Amino acid sequence: MPVYEESYRSWEGILKQHPRTWWIIARTGIRLLWKKSMIIFLIFAYIPFFVRAVQIYIVTQLELKVQLDQAMKAFKINPEFFFQFIWAQMFFLVLILIFSGAGIIANDKKFKALSIYFSKPVGLWDYLFGKWLILFFYGSLVTMIPAIILFLTRVFLSKDSAFLNNYFWIPLSIISVVILITGVLGMLILALSAACRGTRSAAIFFFTIYIVPDILGQIITKIPEIKLVSLSADFKQTGSLLFGIKLPYTFPFWLSILVLAVAAALSILTIRLKVKPTEVVK
Amino acid sequence: MIIEAKKLSKWYGQVIGVNNLTFTIKPGVTGFLGPNGAGKTTLLRLLTGQLKPSKGTICINGEKIWNNHRIMKNIGYCPEQDAFWNYLTGWDFVFSTMRMHGFSTDEAKDRTKEVLDIVDMTEFESKRIGGYSKGMRQRIKLAQAIGHDPEILFLDEPLNGMDPIGRKKIIDLVKELGTKSKIVVVSSHVLHEVEEMTDTILLINHGRLLAEGNIYEIRHLIDTHPLQVTIKCDNVNVLTAKLMEYEDVLSVQFDRELNQVTVETNQPDEFHLRIPKIAMENKIKIHSLWSPDENLEAVFDYLVR
Questions:
Q1: Do B97 and B144 contact (CB within 8 A), yes or no?
Q2: pTM higher than 0.90
Q3: Which residues of B, range 135-164, sit inside 8 Å of A by Cβ?
Q4: CB < 8 Å to B49, chain A
Q5: Residue A6 belongs to a domain
Q6: In-domain check, residue A1
């Protein structure tokens, strides 16, 4: 056992030239959130998954025995089934983004921790990507992961390879939709967390931006294009496109993509302006 | 290793943080001395690459520091204010900052253990930072700053809130780091704190460099500056009469209602030695003694004049 004097000891090792600081930031954040009773929330979020899994089991068992009639076709396991599942999980995704995202930068600003990050070899994009990965990780746990497990369940329970041959691209659609949704909403909550004074106000603003335009779209039915301002409607339109199912709205899909791109760009711009290592003296 | 600032300025809109500073810092301990609001913290943030200069340059070994991660890997920074997540334990905080510097998981574990031992925080490593005392917070901030064994270390008011034993340890540590060919910059608004760590200082006020060099030269300037001392006692008349017998006492003002006398002297050290003797011989009970202009602000006013 080495015996040291009570004084400074130098480090003899060699440090990595390019540490993946975004990964360190993400890992620390994921671990901290896990400690905050995230597991209980995830258990609730997985209830729809178990219901859908049972549905897949029943439908595939019936398929083995009898030809599905018209009524049973409503329960058919097709791209729409997976998109509907992800769409239903949006409730949990939004809750996760609010729960884990509202304080993600606001707390760093509150505790003045930005100066610790940025006095180290951590760039703004490392910081942002690390923070976004935390949201993506938990967002995927309630959307992408269960959706892919459902797909695999369907594949393994099939009597032949017809389902896999027809729908092999579904996992890619699942991944794309989840990246799209967590990408835009993740950036939005990061921007609000950076811009707002506290966690609560960031959560309220996020909820307002996400819900209010959706309600407006429901009320003002005379102008269908009004739904364009609803991020939820734009996700549905773009998601339907990615899953190859009928588009729910009459406006062109590219307009929805444009709205989502603008929302993401504005969020990034806000973050760029609001995330600074030190508070500026006025 | 050398730090060079040339005509360095930083302003925030109308507010000037630092103004046209040119200096060089070599290995060893250097003190940034200045009153609160002098621009020390802004200067440290410029030196650590957190702020971009509005004008001028700041280089370490000829390389500009702003956004230069290669240089930043060799820098340790201990901010004045608390800058951590209260819900983390001390160990988690230091460990995650070690990882950001490129330590592997095992290396970071070893080094975190070692560095917590250096700052005497091993006992409290599992406690949440939110429950730490001010002194413990200072030590954990210092641990994250020295953990990666940086070549350059910036410490912003590192002795704030430390108990006497803790102060002694930090002072010894800073002095030791200065002997290891590292550049250690310590900022403080307390003259004797800096004096205990180094004799090389940069004197800053209102964002400008007032003096640079040996602290004893500054001390000499201060010593020739008449010092005001206020004494509160139970017999103002006798004390006043006795004090007026000495040539170094330039003026005396007394207030019978408050039972206090304010003296101006140009030999403060001798004056301070004399007071207990006068009190003993004349059975005067001294309640308090303080110097209203012993703070840096007064010294700066004097230097600027």
A1: yes
A2: no
A3: 144, 146, 148-149
A4: 118-119
A5: no
A6: no
